[in-house]
Amino acid sequence: RRLGECESRPFPRGATRPYFCPMRLTGRHTFDGPREAVWDMLLDPAVLARAFPGRQELHRSGPGRYRGRVHLAIGALPAGAFAVRVDISDESYPERYTMRVRGDGLLGNAAGHANVRLEAQGPDTTLMDYECVLVTSGAIGLVGQHLLGTLGGALARSGLRSLGEELEIRRVAHL
After folding, report:
1. Rounded to two decimals, what is the model's pTM?
2. pLDDT tens, position by position, 51-105
């Protein structure tokens, strides 16, 4: 199946509708900090847990592995708690990595990956390019799929703004 094609699955009463469909999110963001500092911040579980909406717990469970819980709502739908697993692969410090994410909850599942590239634009400026793909299933996929495209961009902008603020706090603390 090619990216962008949806799979249909039967609903309990026999109706067929899209059950899940990949959402793609790409973008660029400029951080005011050196590439190595941006890399360290992006892989710090405490920073990631604070940067994005929802109450989150995230801890490092091994090299390139994180585990935790996220409590989310998608639009008006309280999605509840998700057990989250994050694995980092294809690392080339401090240039690029791939982050694979899986979340499992009572109302459904989400799985995806993000390819992240960091490029130094000078001694204190870093350009991040990212490409993310997320697939949802279960009730969260059925209801939330319509909102994910809109919310995905807003969540990314909000999270990246928070990460930029964290980088500034770290920079000032080291002065």
Report:
1. 0.81
2. 766 768 899 999 999 999 988 776 666 667 889 999 999 999 999 999 999 989 8
The secondary structure of the chain, three-state, reads: CCCCCCEEEECCCCCEEEEECCEEEEEEEEECCCHHHHHHHHCCHHHHHHHCCCEEEEEEEECCEEEEEEEEEECCEEEEEEEEEEEEEEEECCCEEEEEEEEEECCEEEEEEEEEEEEEEECCEEEEEEEEEEEEEHHHHHHHHHHHHHHHHHHHHHHHHHHHHHHHHHHHHCC
Distance CA 97, CA 146 (A): 29
Angle formed at CA 27 by CA 137 and CA 64, multiple of 5 degrees = 65
